[in-house]
Amino acid sequence: MARNERDGGNSGGRERGGDRDRTPRDREESELVEKLVGINRVAKVVKGGRRFGFAALVVVGDAKGRVGVGSGKAREVPEAIRKATDQAKRSMIRVPLREGRTLHHDVHGHFGAGKVVLRTADAGTGIIAGGPMRAIFEALGVQDVVTKSVGTSNPHNMIKATFDALSQCVSPRAVAARRGRRVSDILGRREAGAEVKESA
Question: What secondary structure letter does DSSP report for 187?
Answer without folding.
Answer: S
